């Protein structure tokens, strides 16, 4: 037997190589399934579908500070202002609300149903410089705005200290 026959240099290139075990294939298929799972989860539609039940539990907020006050804006579209409660206690701002499910019409055929119903609550810690007693809230076009003024001592301008030469 020649070396050329042992090394298989004369075999054609289109002959498939048979794998002995399925271990490599199972790891590869597991990796593909995990990749698909992460792609589905982090895609724009996938993440929204995973977050849909939680979206009603935690409304999105912006928290803004200037020299005189703190402003909290919460996106609560589709809620009736009478069904929203805002309270400030012990340095915490709590926004809660409830949306009741409307009567489902029997004659309608839903192709997709994404609107969520139920209650939510969001609690935000406030800084010690906030004057919780004078907090005010307003609701317009699905946006809840809460203004919390700062305490008088927090609004004092710093005193300029001169350096002696």
CATH topology of the domain at 59-101 and 118-155: Immunoglobulin-like
Order of helices and strands: HHHEEEEEEEH
**What's the gyration radius in Å?**
31 Å
**Any idea what the CATH architecture of the domain at 59-101 and 118-155 is?**
Sandwich
The largest sheet is:
4 strands, antiparallel
| Number of distinct beta strands | 7
Which whole number gives the mean pLDDT?
77
CATH top level assignment of the domain at 59-101 and 118-155: Mainly Beta
| Helix fraction by DSSP (H/I, runs of at least 4) | 10-25%
First-residue to last-residue Cα separation: 101 Å
Class from secondary-structure proportions: alpha+beta
Widest beta sheet: strand line-up: 1-2-7-6
Q: Report the β-strand fraction as a percent range.
A: 25-35%
Indicate the overall shape. Answer: flat
Continuous helix count: 4
Residue runs with pLDDT of under 50 for 5 or more positions: 48-57
Question: Characteristics of this structure?
Answer:
165 residues; alpha+beta; Immunoglobulin-like; four-stranded antiparallel beta sheet; three-stranded antiparallel beta sheet; 4 helices; 7 strands; flat
Ordered list of secondary-structure elements with their pairings:
Elements: H1 3-7, H2 23-42, H3 44-55, E1 61-65, E2 69-75, E3 84-89, E4 92-99, E5 118-125, E6 136-140, E7 143-149, H4 152-155
Antiparallel strand pairs: 1-2, 2-7, 3-4, 4-5, 6-7
Helix pairs in contact: 2-3
């Amino acid at each position: 037997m020649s070396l050329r026959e042992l090394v298989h240099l004369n075999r054609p290139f289109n002959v498939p190589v048979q794998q002995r075990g399925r271990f490599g294939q199972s790891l590869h298929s597991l990796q593909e399934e995990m990749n698909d799972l992460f792609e589905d989860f982090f895609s724009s539609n996938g993440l929204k579908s995973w977050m849909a039940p939680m979206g009603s539990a935690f409304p999105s907020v912006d928290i803004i500070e200037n020299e005189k006050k703190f402003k909290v804006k919460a996106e609560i579209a589709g809620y009736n202002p009478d069904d929203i409660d805002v309270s400030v206690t012990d340095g915490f701002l709590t926004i809660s609300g409830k949306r009741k499910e409307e009567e489902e019409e029997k004659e309608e055929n839903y192709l997709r149903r994404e609107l969520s119903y139920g209650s939510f609550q969001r609690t935000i810690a406030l800084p010690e410089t906030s004057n919780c007693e004078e907090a005010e809230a307003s609701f317009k076009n699905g946006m809840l705005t809460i203004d919390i003024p700062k305490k008088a001592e927090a609004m004092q301008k710093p005193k300029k200290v001169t350096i002696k030469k």
